[in-house]
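#struct-pred
JK: can someone run the complex with zinc ion? inputs below
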Amino acid sequence: MIYIFFLLFILGTCLGSFISCVAYRYKLGISIIYPRSFCDNCSQTLQHWQLIPIIGFILQKGKCHFCKQKIPLSSTVIELAIGVIFIFNTIIIANTNLIFTSLLVVWLTLISLEDYYTLSVDSITLEYGGLILLIFRFHTVITNLKANFLIIILFIIILISCNLLNKFGTADTILIVFSFLLLGFYNTLVVILLSCILGIISYLIKRDFSASHPFIPYLSLSILIIFYAINIFKILII
Ligand SMILES: [Zn+2]
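RT: done, structure tokens with the ligand placed:
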């Protein structure tokens, strides 16, 4: 079992490294394939050993091998976090949900990073990623739609109206619709409430009321909290 945990941790750190790279390249407006990874400060192309998740950071002692500029800790933290979450998923989530839950974490982290860096989300990542995840949970989607079809449609119309009035982001709306289909109507109301509370706490801590703030990170975190809560509750009552 320890080997499986180790392999999943490695897989998690690699995916964490990949999504950090994709989000950062989205911020710079460059392709995810070309050019090869480089130092932000001296533009030197990084060698393979420097790109190994977590280990590359440790071997370089947190500084660029070439110019000694400090390397931001954020990418390593994300690698470590996704690796730990993959092990956590293996322990608490049933086998059938393991792949879905892990992909959900990776996708939500990626779109959160993109929104955090640029206040926008790549539409292909958002729409196709969400669609693929919902196909995984086709039966849940149908059940949630059957249960609250009219009120979900009404809510979507209100959100789209807010989009047209520029009062709410399109990506935020798409993620809320994703939440309706995955978690159901009432759980999504809790998601929206929780995201607003997290957002307000963050604003109060930063005390920056002038600039625009990303909302996708709060929505994503809230979706994950409610998703895990539902799954852990199911395990506890079985
Ligand atoms: Zn450098």
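RT: quick notes.
The chain has a mean pLDDT of 91.
The radius of gyration is 19 Å.
JK: thanks, will look after standup
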